[in-house]
Amino acid sequence: MKKTMTRFIPFFIMASFLVTGCNQNIKSTTTAAKPSVSTEAKKDQGPVYKGKVVGKSNKAKQISIEVGKDKDAKTVMVSFDDKTKGLEYAAAGEGAIIAYEMRDGVPFATVIKPKLATLPPGVTVITPTEVKTLIDSNKDFLLVDSRPGNRYSASHLPGAVSIPVCEMQELLQNLPKEKDKLLIFYCGGPT
User: What is the mean pLDDT of residues 126-148?
Assistant: First the structure.
């Protein structure tokens, strides 16, 4: 049973990357800052927007975030001020969860957190220290850099192969044929 589950670990890892994706298409449309389908209330936090940050203007003190999926996707403008916590997570192209409060009909961000991928069952997180130990000990494993190719070219971990998330389907043949080989994927995000 354990061996059968191990065979599917690469699939689950790839599926998690494909779900979070690295789609660079950014819509430029904006809508009024009314709550959308992906707005939900969190206990002790108030309403939130979940989605991909489209942009941030420090001069205008506004963040644009794309919420919803497919045809229901909308770009919402959220204001922020000096009291907003977690502004470092409002980077264009990154997933974020923005808790906000309404002030004079305008949503103001109170707390911004990174939107992290959920790992599928059977997939575990490995720390940078554990990866370094594996690299230093010359263990048999495959280290996969799933960032875009230009970031891999600029710098990558020793022994890593480039299989960007955006090209994962086309590059599946680069994964080892042995189903019990340890695979370690890394990206530039906090996951």
Answer: 88
Whether residue 55 sits in one domain with residue 14: no
* 191 within 8 A of 22, measured Cβ to Cβ: no
How far apart, in whole angstroms, are the C-alpha atoms of residue 107 and residue 48? 10
* CA–CA distance, 17 with 164 (Å, rounded to integer): 9
- Identify the three-state secondary structure at position 113: strand
The answer to whether residues 153 and 99 belong to one domain is: no
72 shares a domain with 108: yes
In a 10 Å sphere around its CB, with 0-12 CB exposed, 13-18 middle and 19+ buried, how is residue 124 labelled?
exposed
Sign of CA dihedral 114, 117, 121, 126: negative
CA distance 92 to 90: 7
Total structural domains in the chain? 2
113 by Cβ neighbours in 10 Å (0-12 / 13-18 / 19+) ranks as middle
Averaged pLDDT of the chain: 78
Taking only the tens place, the pLDDT of each residue in 88-110 is: 999 988 889 999 999 999 999 99
Residue 7 falls inside a structural domain: yes
Q: pTM for this one?
A: 0.48
Residue with tokens 């963040």: 63
11-48 residues labelled b (16+ CB within 10 A) or e (exposed):
eebbebbeebebeeeeeeeeeebebbebbeeeeeeeeb
Position 29 in a domain: no
